[in-house]
């Protein structure tokens, strides 16, 4: 197995953590579809594997690959993105405090406020693009700062480097949900974050056929604690899903180049369209944090949000699109569209929606890897008829 440090991103995507299978030399890692492993003597597993909640070779191949892409030493795979976030919170105890970005994925806010807060962990939500606001939200008991950048669906950024410094000054960890950017465009560990989280359901798998999550960390002790939580609570992905995700990740760099190009083309087209009030895309010069985007990202992905002026128009627009399919989720090869206020963020309280600027007319596009001209024609047709 080659050394990760000597490889560039595209080579890492294909090769990081991969070696031919020793029995047959199979070039692709096998799917070890097993729940347990034979032990030749009592409490002496043959190769360290005893039960698949603890370890599975297919899952480990995925974990090594994604750790390589994020520049970390440890990958810990989960059954979903939310299960990955939950595992980091479960390192904490009742009375500990978490500061979270206010405009996270809707399911993250729901898990924090309606499930984990009941167990005695305290949460505060803040606009993490404002470092001073984050600083004043910290308490002596704050153990974790959780951010998402760009955020979903407002495409707000936070300064990962500045927030890592702030968290570390206060003895807390910084977790970055890197789902929207993907490691092709942004590598939070390089900027000082302690743990990177992905819903692998999205860009990393890239083909809209699994639900999965991953945490990547550089620190051995932190990774060990997270593995202990996963082993003790059980939210592991199955071998088949791990294998599919590994297969998807091998083309991440090729897909992301096209997502980035199509995303920018769609954002520019919509910005110039009279039927659109506002376009939110970090790659546009009009984005209020474009300078930060250029500093901490190398590309801007395929996620574009637009405000078309109101709920009725948003509905009419999305229902008239033909190539963009109306569905939740994102990051697959196919273009998708959603109305966050009624779909992904329906569970977010109205006052929080208002605070983050999530108006009913906002439409979120996940721009796929189809031909640009077809996507622009589809948008033009639907906007004209809406
Ligand atoms: C989808 C998503 C999640 C949740 O991941 P699941 O795999 O659906 O559990 C978390 N964060 C972001 C940014 C997401 O898009």
Strand and helix map with partners:
Layout: H1 9-15, H2 57-70, E1 74-78, H3 81-89, E2 97-101, H4 106-116, E3 122-126, H5 131-137, E4 142-148, H6 160-169, E5 173-177, E6 195-199, E7 213-217, H7 220-233, H8 239-249, H9 252-271, E8 278-280, H10 290-296, E9 303-307, H11 311-320, E10 325-326, E11 336-338, H12 350-356, E12 362-366, H13 372-385
Parallel strand pairs: 2-3, 2-4, 4-5, 5-6, 10-11
Antiparallel strand pairs: 1-7, 6-7, 8-9, 9-12, 11-12
Bound molecules: pyridoxal-5'-phosphate.
Uncertain runs are: none
Our count of domains comes out at 2
Q: What overall geometry do the principal axes of the alpha carbons give?
A: globular
- How much of the sequence lies in strands comes to 5-15%
Distance between the termini: 54 Å
In total, the number of strands is: 12
Task: Tell me the major beta sheet.
Answer: 7 strands, mixed
- Reading off the top of the CATH hierarchy, the class of the largest domain is best stated as Alpha Beta
Could you characterize the architecture of this molecule?
With 386 residues, the protein is of the alpha/beta class. It has 2 domains: 4-249, 3-Layer(aba) Sandwich (Aspartate Aminotransferase, domain 2); 252-385, Aspartate Aminotransferase, domain 1, CATH 3.90.1150. The chain is 37% helix and 14% strand. It is built from 13 helices and 12 strands. The chain has helices at 9-15, 57-70, 81-89, 106-116, 131-137, 160-169, 220-233, 239-249, 252-271, 290-296, 311-320, 350-356, 372-385, and strands spanning 74-78, 97-101, 122-126, 142-148, 173-177, 195-199, 213-217, 278-280, 303-307, 325-326, 336-338, 362-366. The strands form 2 sheets. The chain has a 7-stranded mixed beta sheet with strand order 1-7-6-5-4-2-3, with helices on both faces. Helix 2 (57-70) runs parallel beside helix 8 (239-249) and helix 9 (252-271) packs parallel to helix 13. The termini are far apart. The site of pyridoxal-5'-phosphate has 16 residues, from helix 3 and helix 4.
């Amino acid at each position: 197995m080659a050394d990760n440090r000597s490889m560039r991103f595209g080579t890492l995507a294909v090769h990081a953590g991969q070696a031919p299978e020793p029995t047959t030399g199979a070039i692709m890692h096998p799917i070890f579809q097993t729940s347990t492993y034979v032990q030749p003597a009592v409490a002496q597993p043959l190769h360290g594997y005893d039960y698949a909640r603890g370890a599975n070779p297919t899952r480990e191949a995925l974990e090594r690959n994604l750790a390589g892409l994020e520049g970390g030493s440890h990958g810990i795979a989960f059954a979903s993105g939310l299960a990955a976030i939950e595992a980091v919170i479960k390192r904490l105890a009742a009375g500990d405090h978490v500061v979270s970005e206010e405009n996270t994925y809707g399911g993250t806010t729901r898990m924090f406020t309606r499930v984990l807060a009941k167990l005695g962990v305290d949460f505060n939500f803040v606009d993490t693009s404002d470092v001073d606001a984050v600083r004043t939200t910290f308490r002596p008991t704050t153990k974790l700062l959780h951010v998402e950048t760009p955020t979903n669906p407002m495409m707000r950024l936070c300064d990962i480097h500045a927030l890592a410094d702030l968290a570390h000054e206060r003895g807390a960890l910084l977790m970055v949900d890197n789902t929207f950017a993907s490691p092709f465009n942004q590598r939070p560990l390089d900027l000082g974050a302690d743990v990177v989280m992905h819903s692998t359901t999205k860009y990393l798998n890239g083909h809209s056929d699994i639900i999965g999550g991953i945490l990547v960390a550089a620190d051995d002790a932190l990774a060990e604690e997270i593995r202990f939580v996963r082993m003790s609570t059980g939210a592991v992905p199955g071998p088949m899903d791990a294998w599919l995700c590994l297969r998807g990740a091998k083309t991440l760099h090729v897909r992301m180049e096209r997502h980035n190009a199509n995303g920018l083309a769609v954002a520019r087209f919509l910005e110039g369209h009279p039927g659109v009030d506002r376009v939110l895309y970090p790659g546009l010069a009009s984005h209020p944090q474009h300078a930060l985007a250029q500093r901490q990202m190398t590309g801007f992905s395929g996620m574009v949000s637009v405000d078309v002026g109101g709920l009725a128009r948003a509905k009419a627009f999305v229902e008239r699109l033909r190539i963009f399919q109306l569905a939740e989720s994102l990051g697959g090869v196919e273009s998708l569209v959603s109305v966050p206020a009624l779909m992904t963020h329906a569970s977010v309280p109205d006052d929080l929606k208002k605070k983050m600027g999530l108006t009913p007319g906002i439409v979120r596009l996940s721009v796929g890897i189809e031909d640009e001209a077809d996507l622009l024609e589809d948008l033009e047709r639907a906007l004209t008829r809406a």
